[in-house]
């Protein structure tokens, strides 16, 4: 997996990635990219939705993808850090699933290259879904007779119920969880009245201050065109002397270093999307920052070494609010019945 | 609250309650009864659905009504007993929410008279949603700005966000969670091919053996026409010498006695619905019995002091399977965003 240290590349690469040459602003596409070996079908998406909502994938039968990535709200769990099986707390803030399909890597540290890979992670994490191993998880699902038909509809008859197919189906469903059509999207698509004066002022500040160096592209999470599997990484905090680092304990978790152990990964993080922030409080990898204005101040200080004025903060917040929704209406999936001895 | 000891009354009362005089068989109405002081409106039902799915009603922000009453499946949680906040286990099997609107009382011991009363119970149960008190719960919801509009749409402007209104909205939503149109319903409505020969044989056995003495009425949970708030109670186990009582530890929990302390309530239980059993394994108040055939054998032994033949069991199981669904298609609710300091 090739890794891009975002800060320097991003500045060089901006014009080349921009849909409209000369501007870093891109609207969210109406369809998420999908890998050639996992093209979506209605049957696959429907199966993926069932699995996404199915708590029987967890040791206790109480935690599903949906538990921490609530698509009835902001695609996260409203908490600083998540709670998995047996009431255990995780260490990082749940990233939103909305528009994850547009990111070039998954998890806060980009350690999963694809949605398919990501989907398998929480299943065996002892503080998330807590299954012993992936085989136990898919064996559990395979013991639910009503899953045979939807798996075969999605993947053909035969040995359809595999962890690989389950992950593919969940990823195919997640590629439908996108929110094009925000006020910002309408603005950059030509509707010049879609943003308020203040939002336009904030957009200019966002560019002038340099926020857009990292938070660029359709998802504000990195340049468009980065190959899937290539995390767009950034150092955080860039300025460790910022008083916010102590206030919010922002340097304790060393980011990608925690999973790779490489010195070059210390405090490196995947640049998170800025879409739908209105719905994803609290903020930062540890969920320590409670409001968008404060998050903007923190980022100004820790990444740009600047103390932003109230005016700058307010304008940027107004702009960030324009990146909200709309969330598509979804029908609830119907889950097959449980054998009585499946869960103890 | 007037209490009916079901066994004796039921036998006397059967003809009077039957829609078709002379038969105990009634189809499920297409609409659930509703109290005069809580007539449904679309705005109230939609608010109720939002609240039903909202985990922010729990201490940790992880447990909603939906967590243990999963309307994407059988309206329960597939577990022997439920798991609430901090991984704590409850003592009884989660009853299904499907068709609860047709029951004359709520909870396994009938201690809540109405859906409105029931909705408030789990919120402050320390092993369920774990809120300190109902006021804290509604204060929490009131701090979510996006709830003001839906509460006012449902209950008018002014002091709309109250625990009473929240319970009313949830109850109004639950009254939409009904499953008329099962094969059995179509059969008793005149479609004589809706049941198989075996199912009809099972239906006759169900009546001849006396199961229908308690499991009667549209929900198979008691006679139609019992005033709401009047639990239809039955002793269980009726024959404590049944070997199943020890095998499945069926007498440890003393039922209604545990909440009232009255001697006459010892081992008294509300008669549970038999609809959608295919979806609600495992069975009994403690979730100890894993399959429908075994549940039928247990009931034959503990309530009728009979050892049922395999043929009787198989026929009755076939009949019980005819009481399944259909479950209505539902759109997911959209929940308002969370202030970043709502949950710690």
How is this structure best described in words?
Two copies of one chain form a homodimer. Chain A has 344 residues and is mainly alpha-helical. In chain A, 35% of the residues lie in helices and 3% in strands. Chain A has 13 helices and three strands, in the order βαααααααααβααβαα. The first copy, chain A, has a three-stranded mixed sheet with strand order 1-2-3. The first copy, chain A, is globular and about 60 Å long. Chain A starts with a strand and ends in a 23-residue tail after the last helix.
Element layout with pairings:
2 copies of one chain form a homodimer.
Chain A: E1 4-5, H1 6-17, H2 42-52, H3 65-68, H4 115-124, H5 134-142, H6 148-155, H7 163-174, H8 183-188, H9 197-209, E2 232-235, H10 243-247, H11 257-260, E3 268-270, H12 292-304, H13 310-321
Parallel strand pairs in A: 1-2
Antiparallel strand pairs in A: 2-3
Helix pairs in contact in A: 2-6, 2-7, 4-7, 9-13, 12-13
